[in-house]
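To whoever picks this up:

The parser on our side crashed when reading a file containing two proteins. I've narrowed it down to the boundary between the first structure block and the second sequence. Both blocks are reproduced below exactly, byte for byte. First block:
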Amino acid sequence: MNARTEYDLLLQSTHLPARLSNTQLDALEEETIFILREVAASFERPTLLFSGGKDSLVLLKCAEKAFGAGRIPYPLLMIDTGHNFPEVTAFRDHRAQELGAELIVRSVEDSMARGTVRLAHPGESRNVHQSVTLLEAIEEFRFDALIGGARRDEEKARAKERIFSHRDAFGQWQPKDQRPELWTLFNTRLAPGEHFRVFPISNWTELDVWQYIEREHVALPSIYYTHKREVVERRGLLVPVTELTPPRDGEKVEMRDVRFRTVGDITCTCPVDSLAADAADVVVETLAAEVSERGATRMDDKTSEASMEKRKKDGYF
């Protein structure tokens, strides 16, 4: 049975909503392109946060449509923990070069060398410490708007964000002091030292993203699709076996067919069991998924909403 037949049978048997029409995807794409152009028109030194992950690649595809290949009017910025999957960083470099876009990479390891980031212990995840490196990059380049690929459906703290999310001079987010966005009108006024985080795909869902990837033939790093990988089961998650995440005493190492629903720091990103070999297969799996992508794959998100909100207030993505 092919993916399309399985997809149709799934809809019939579970009464899931019908596949989003091209009209719906067109509307989401149009909104995203409008926001990307609004950023270019409203700010002097914007940048697009680009990790090489699926959401940032969808953003980049929309930016390419908005401005044309080789004409994206702002640089791409990557905050590298030094613990990223090599398949993703290699794809990041390839895609930026392919588009002729300027790519700026700033590393958490450089912040550690400067003493602005200090780990509690060598094995601590560097994911949360990206905030420090990001704020240092903002100060270095005087960025006044940072475009990110966060979506409201990811988790509760992100759902509180506006599309144009104001940050104060310390890079902090105040959820109770956000600006209204009625009738798609955005207040982009800034005081010295302040900046905005802008989320053009806020209204997309994981399903929207994958249907768009399928429709537009957006290329992704290979680890988004099924591959064999050694994993161990830990706290209900599949933890990849790497030098950074070795198995613990008593854990059984298994070789399983997996894929990543989201990618990030190796120390906190987990795959899921999957035989999905292309975007159409992933759409089928996404329709049937009962747990959010971050809830199913991120060890650092096994925390409370309040904890994530605090991290965002401190400058996290």
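<<boundary where parser fails>>
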Amino acid sequence: MVNVLVFFYNCLMLIFLFPILLGIFLSGKKNRQEFLYKISERLSCWKVPELDKNKKTIWIHCASLGEARAVEPMIPHLQEYNIIVSAITKSAREYISKIKGISYYALMPVDLYPFIAKQLKKVKPDILVLIETEFWPSMIICANKIGTKIITVNGRISKNAFPYYKLTKFFWKPFLNLISFISVRNEQDYERFKAMIEDKNKLEITGNIKYDRDWTHETMEKESLFFTEQDRIFTAGSTREGEEKKIINVYKEVIKKYKNLKLIIAPRHISRVKDVISLLEKNNLKFVLFSQLSSGTEKDVVVVDVFGKLQAIYSISDMVFVGGSLVNKGGQNPIEAAAYAKPVIYGKHMFNFESEVKALTSNGGVEIEDETELKDIIEKFMYDEPFRIQLGAKAARVVEQQKGAVAKNIKIIKNV
């Protein structure tokens, strides 16, 4: 049955590959460059060095930057093995390249049977570790055929994705059953996976490995953005279309009373920076791009137009809004700011981070319904500094209390 499913899956992949590639090449230079980045690796041309034959080999696969960062704390505990790490996005690969203790890293080959089979036979991993929802059918069946045991770490199925998985259970169940062990983040994920697999004994709640990362090692000073100690910084991180307008409207109202409030907007996709600029110009706000910061530039707003700086920006923020939560996008990870002892504000659309929101709400996190509630909480943070600081401290404690998932998952990997 699983062989038939993977055959049809590969046929569909080939059918849709051409229009997808055509769309990428017609969508602009940036998307073309992103796709062509290390294209040989996507086509399964890996240059794997000679691995230590006295060690077993682990292949860890993650998708994007968030998962790559989550994997980092696991690496020091796996040095008795050869470690191969693959990723899907350019930013994740670049991040992995800086992690010490990895034997080899590359972009994941396209999930077509010949490409994946080639690399798995070449690397011959003893264990394939899939992070979160990286359930690639060709990868799973090829690993299984060569005797590689498969583990899912930080397994998750979001509330919105679960109906899709249930509807297509006939397809996913045979592949999930080939996985030796699935560690999940929380009780909700446990129940969703339980409905998708046959052997419930291979499921365990271990917590979220993302909490174990040293989030706060990326820092900066207010002076580097040419702000003063008297300035209070409101950062809107990873914002989506439709949110910036609301944030700017609220900001304009609040600064009528609190002139020392400064705004930093970091759109989720840098390609949308021009849209944010247009909104700021229409609202007559003084702004500067992060890449063009300089002494003496008069500004109320900084627009982040570079990759990899948001985490450090949280370190100098006084309050943080989590993007993707006022519109129906599922939100971003609130613990990225909470770890810095910052009060975190988010809308009701946080279905990608249910357990994090459950832990944070009333403990450093504030859920809002609309612009009015956003304005009210920002003003409260401005006039009640002890409350703001206390809420931030609660958020940091929540992050600390959730740590320990890495140790549990390392134990599972070594046992398997």
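After patching the parser it read the second block fine. The mean pLDDT is 93. Residues 227 and 262 are 8 Å apart (CA to CA).
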